[in-house]
Automatic annotation (TrEMBL):
Its EC number is 4.1.1.20. This is Diaminopimelate decarboxylase. The lineage of its organism: Bacteria, Pseudomonadati, Bacteroidota, Flavobacteriia, Flavobacteriales. Specifically catalyzes the decarboxylation of meso-diaminopimelate (meso-DAP) to L-lysine. It comes from Subsaximicrobium wynnwilliamsii. Keywords: Amino-acid biosynthesis, Decarboxylase, Lyase, Lysine biosynthesis, Pyridoxal phosphate. The gene is lysA. The keyword Oxidoreductase does not apply. Pyridoxal 5'-phosphate binds at residues 218, 356. GO terms for biological process: lysine biosynthetic process via diaminopimelate. CDD domains: PLPDE_III_DapDC.
């Protein structure tokens, strides 16, 4: 998106505001389907937790995507957005049997990642198709908080527990129709991904009625100029060939499934903030903006880097700034970053703000969550109103004191 367009959106809708470029989302979706076009049956299930606005979900529905959900509420959002139950896979972690049964009753594909719930569910609902999430014990991901396939992870059923898993399946006579893994986010080395895939193929051989194999996702996107990313085309070529060979060994065509989130929406997102104060201290120049980690927590939570540009002065002389928020504790978006000279009231644009940004926003410090705008067919559409003071009070109950 052009800087002038973003400036106009900030003017029309105020700041802070999240902006999403529909064309970029569509481009990334087509890029992924093209990379795996040699697979007969491919299913992409967009990971709702990355960005769950219902208008974004409707866009994915229009493109033919399925959904990957991790909560009963995300399932309900998907149904509300027009997805059919069979287009949705539900992969929770540590939830109650009651929630899993509610999801199954809605008709979605259930994916179970622990032996206790698997046995309970299989005993009560042996005919309901179930996918099993395997932990391949492969360390992958750009940060320990987003590496979920290693031996100390809370996710998945350990490959070392396969004998017990098979005994549960045999005893309950349950219907296992899928095998799943997810090793982590920001995967750079596709050989690690392919290695984990071999573990999944070996596991799949134990089950005779499979319909699909789900390889998760975690593809890395570039966060700054010159940054490296997952070579999705190379992965598509290598994994497609191996998957097709496995289907021949298995005796029938299976569906290859992925659940990308960040790959599809991260680069489509921009977060626009206004500079409230430019503050010079003895050692630092701070650009203090009208937002904080209540709106964009990733830099503080993961140490993630979002490229920041001054779209009010894109050709200005570059200086070094620390960009910080208004939350009353350490609240840093960027340290000692080269940015075109900043003045108060300038608009700063944070790139890669489409994934795990608004979806993790909060009302900390009793601040309002920002508006969301979708740039679709060359027009800005408001898809979430900015919160008001009434929204802050909406579910609070003031008792007589």
């Amino acid at each position: 998106m052009e800087g002038n367009t973003l400036l106009q959106i900030a003017k029309d809708f105020g700041s802070p505001v999240y902006v999403y470029d529909a064309e970029k989302i569509q481009f990334q979706y087509k890029r992924l389907t093209s990379a795996f076009n040699k697979v007969k049956h491919l299913k992409l299930n967009y990971a709702v937790k990355a960005l769950s606005n219902i208008s974004i979900l409707k866009l994915f529905n229009q493109m033919g995507s399925g959904l990957d959900t991790v909560s009963i509420q995300e399932v309900q959002l998907g149904l509300k957005a027009g997805f059919k139950p069979e287009q949705i896979i539900y992969t929770p972690n540590g939830v109650s049997l009651d929630e899993i049964e509610k999801a199954a009753k809605l008709g979605v594909q259930v994916n179970i990642d622990n032996l206790s719930i698997l046995e309970q569910f299989g005993t009560k609902h042996p005919k309901t198709p179930v996918c099993i999430r395997i932990n391949p014990h492969v360390m992958a991901g750009g940060n320990t908080n987003i590496s979920v396939g290693h031996i100390d992870s809370k996710f998945g059923i350990s490959i070392h527990q396969i004998p017990l898993l098979l005994r549960i399946v045999e005893n309950t006579k349950m219907n296992i129709n899928g095998i799943h893994m997810h090793t982590g986010s920001d995967i750079l080395d596709i050989d690690v991904f392919l290695y984990a895939s071999e573990i999944l193929f070996d596991t799949a051989k134990h089950f005779t009625q499979l319909e699909f194999i789900d390889f998760g996702s975690g593809f890395k996107v570039p966060y700054k100029p010159g940054d490296i990313e997952t070579n999705i085309e190379e992965l598509g070529e290598k994994l497609s060939k191996r998957f097709n060979d496995f289907c021949k060994e298995y005796g029938r065509e299976l569906t290859l499934a992925f659940e990308p989130g960040k790959f599809l929406v991260s680069e489509a997102g921009y977060f626009l903030t206004k500079v409230n104060v430019v503050k010079q201290t003895t050692s630092t120049v701070f650009a203090q903006v009208d937002s904080g980690f209540n709106h964009l927590i990733r830099p503080m939570l993961y140490g993630s880097q979002h490229e920041i540009s001054n779209i009010s002065n894109p050709e200005g002389r570059e200086r070094f700034y620390s960009v910080v928020g208004y939350i009353c504790e350490t609240d840093t978006f960027a340290n000692n970053r080269r940015i075109s000279e900043i003045k108060e009231d300038d608009i700063l644009a944070f790139k890669n703000a489409g994934a795990y940004c608004f979806s993790m926003a909060s009302n900390y410090n009793s601040r309002y969550r920002p508006a969301e705008v979708l740039w679709y067919k060359q027009k800005a559409h408001l898809i979430r109103k900015r919160e008001t003071f009434e929204d802050i009070l909406n579910h609070q109950i003031a008792i007589e004191i």
